[in-house]
Automatic annotation (TrEMBL):
The lineage of its organism: Eukaryota, Metazoa, Chordata, Craniata, Vertebrata. Transmembrane segments: none annotated. It holds the Pfam family MMR_HSR1. The keyword Metal-binding applies. It comes from Prolemur simus. The keyword Magnesium applies. It comes from the Eukaryota. Residues 1-171 form the EngB-type G domain. GO terms for molecular function: GTP binding; metal ion binding. Gene3D superfamilies: P-loop containing nucleotide triphosphate hydrolases. PANTHER family: GTP-BINDING PROTEIN 8. This is GTP-binding protein 8. GO terms for cellular component: mitochondrion. Its cofactor is Mg(2+). Belongs to the TRAFAC class TrmE-Era-EngA-EngB-Septin-like GTPase superfamily. EngB GTPase family.
Amino acid sequence: VVCFIGRSNVGKSSLIKALFSLAPEVEVRVSKKPGHTKKMNFFRVGKYFTLVDMPGYGYRSPKDFVDMVEAYLKERTNLKRTFLLVDSVVGIQKTDNIAIEMCEEFALPYVMVLTKIDKSSKGHLLKQVLQIQKFVNTQTQGCFPQLFPVSAVTYSGIHLLRCFIANVTGNLD
Ligand code: GDP
């Protein structure tokens, strides 16, 4: 099991769609778990792994988000990796820190994915990437040192991210 979290509008649905559209041979089943889950989606990817799409969080719902996600993370048995999405155009925002602090507090192994890299100029993107890289190196314990910059529009970085997911879930193809 891997899970994807990020604030609303960070590009999470688009990324999940992009990840799966490159694997048309894989049957993706969307299931809804009863309970607190209207906003938590489970994608069963063939027999290989399950991707959990966590609810997006924003200015109005940090408390709901933390309650829901914490409840899930406490039950987690086979969660291999958490993918935390950050918008590369604006970098790490205050609301992103909610999720970062949660991953750190629960000592989850997590990976930062930078979304929408097609949107900025190369110069701006480089500046953001360096800033985020510096943050990861100096302010985090559980974050994987390599960033994954992606675009759901150009598919840049999607293949590498898929390989990484395959690797951490033990399905390297
Ligand atoms: P979510 O709320 O995190 O699921 O975000 P969405 O996937 O719905 O995306 C939010 C907005 O960002 C939408 O208008 C998308 O079209 C746009 N978006 C998402 N990913 C990308 C991307 O890689 N590049 C660009 N240019 N726009 C994107």
